[in-house]
């Protein structure tokens, strides 16, 4: 029986640039960085408190994959990320150059805001109401 999601793949133009953005700017943690015999680099990240779900930064190599960079979810969020303090994270990330689509706003489910990664992939940050 299928029991959980373990990896989510994200096509990127440059794995090192994406690694820097997701770890140094967004606060993800490096999980695995391994080069296979064929030269393929398996690079995954996770959130500090969620090591069992990994974001695989996949190098876009074919024209089809390159066309998907920044657009894998079209104009919808590719990832929804939970925050303990959305407004504080907004201020910190904005100061670090992250491009936001809007400003934090209160919704029935919490405080949320949308931003873009270095390639334009939309990320949704939400602070749920407890």
Task: Set down the secondary structure blueprint.
Elements: E1 7-12, H1 15-25, E2 29-35, E3 41-47, E4 50-59, H2 63-68, E5 79-82, H3 86-95, E6 99-100, E7 105-107, E8 110-116, E9 122-128
Parallel strand pairs: 1-4, 5-9
Antiparallel strand pairs: 2-3, 3-4, 6-8, 7-8, 8-9
Quick recap:
This protein is α+β, with helices and mostly antiparallel strands. Helix content is about 20%, strand content about 40%.
Task: Give a structural overview.
With about 130 residues, the protein is an alpha+beta fold. It folds into two domains: about 1-70, 2,3-Dihydroxybiphenyl 1,2-Dioxygenase, domain 1 (Roll), CATH 3.10.180; about 70-130, Roll (2,3-Dihydroxybiphenyl 1,2-Dioxygenase, domain 1), CATH 3.10.180. It is about 20% helix and about 40% strand. It contains three helices and nine strands. The chain has helices spanning about 15-25, 65-70, 85-95; strands at about 5-10, 30-35, 40-45, 50-60, 80, 100, 105, 110-115, 120-130. The strands form two sheets. Strands 5, 6, 7, 8 and 9 form a five-stranded mixed sheet that branches. Strands 1-4-3-2 form a four-stranded mixed sheet. Strand 2 (about 30-35) and strand 3 (about 40-45) form a beta hairpin. The model has no long low-confidence stretch (mean pLDDT about 95).
